[in-house]
Design goal:
With 314 residues, the chain is of the alpha/beta class. The protein is 34% helix and 16% strand. The protein has a single domain (20-307), classed as TIM Barrel, CATH 3.20.20.70. The strands form three sheets. Strands 1-2-5-6-9-10-11-12 form an eight-stranded parallel barrel, surrounded by eight helices. Strands 3-4 form a two-stranded antiparallel sheet. Helix 1 (41-54) runs parallel beside helix 8 (259-272).
């Protein structure tokens, strides 16, 4: 008897393991906004370790200088990356190459020159310019291509940052030109005033536009974080979550979140619909990344489910 795969909807078709991408610092949150944002090298390392134990398999990092301001200095990135690797040997580390505060290619590409244990597995690549409330992230076509080529030459996988469907078109163009090559991973970031809205319609349209070989995660900015995370879990995508996108745990903005709290909530929600959380080594296999080390850090994400009397997925 011949069996046919009609691409049945989830959960009739089994869900893939859920990859949690923890955006733990960002460029904007400061200690005056929340005491929970990690800004020093040691704070970022410690918080990354807590996130790994809670269930994160990707750590998306931004570096800060001694004054707590964003920096592209590869020496600071090296300290952070090596420190995280010592505590979480197999976690996937993504370093920011953002154009929000720094437009010069040389500075944005500095982190891409790291080698050995300091080398990131991935680096962010925003596929177009966009406006935030008070500033603009400048990403010219020339710089986007130069960063993508530098990443490819140094065997660093781009973490494609996509804020609207036009950026999906840009990704397709770069694939056609051979500048972007497998593996493909992107974050769909919704909810900014000047980009795609954070609605189910918008996320469905964006996912529908993605090439089939693209792995994707969804993030919502501010109050939209949890809604977009839940949508991604239901749709079979992955999740980006963290203080970078929302410093609050609740919509009333009364509870300041920790990154660990946000991850544990995702784990509990995923458990309700039977999605198991991917370990770092499993995430590497799903995304087609090389193994980084001898194995995963001990993952305690089952704690979150036990707190809610939920049973982990078998």
């Amino acid at each position: 008897m011949i069996e046919h795969d009609f691409d049945l909807p989830h959960p009739v078709r089994p869900y893939p393991k859920l990859i949690i991408n923890a955006a733990i610092t960002g460029m904007i949150p400061a200690k005056k906004d929340t005491p929970h944002v990690p800004v020093t090298v040691q704070e970022i390392i410690d918080d990354a370790h807590r996130c790994c134990r809670a269930g994160a398999s990707i750590i998306h990092i931004h570096a800060r200088d001694k004054n707590g301001l964003p920096t592209s200095d590869k020496k600071v990135y090296a300290e952070i990356i090596e420190g995280i690797r010592q505590r979480c040997p197999d976690v996937i580390i993504c370093a920011s190459a953002s154009g929000r505060r720094e437009n010069a290619f040389e500075k944005r590409a500095d982190v891409l020159n790291l080698e050995g244990t300091a080398k990131p597995d991935m680096a962010s690549l925003t596929l177009g310019s966009l406006n935030f409330l008070k500033d603009t992230s400048i990403n010219s076509p020339e710089v986007i291509e130069k960063l993508a080529i530098k990443m490819r030459e140094n065997s660093i996988v781009p973490e494609l940052e996509i804020f609207d469907t036009g950026m999906i078109n840009a990704a397709k163009m770069l694939v056609r030109k051979g500048i972007l090559q497998k593996p493909f991973y992107c974050n769909l970031l919704l909810g900014l005033p000047f980009t795609a809205s954070a609605t189910l319609f918008d996320i469905a349209c964006m996912v529908n536009e993605l090439p089939g070989e693209f792995h994707w995660a969804a993030a919502g900015i501010g109050k939209f974080q949890l809604n977009m995370n839940i949508a991604a879990i239901i749709m079979g995508g992955h999740v980006r979550v963290g203080i970078e996108d929302n410093i609050y745990y609740d919509n009333e903005r009364e509870i300041l979140a920790t990154n660990e709290m946000l991850i544990k909530r995702i784990v509990r929600i995923a458990a309700e619909i039977g999605r198991e959380i991917a370990t770092s080594s499993q995430a590497r296999q799903i995304l087609g990344l090389n193994s980084s080390s001898s194995g995963d850090v001990k993952n305690d994400y089952k704690w979150a489910m036990q707190e809610s009397n939920l049973r982990p997925a078998d």
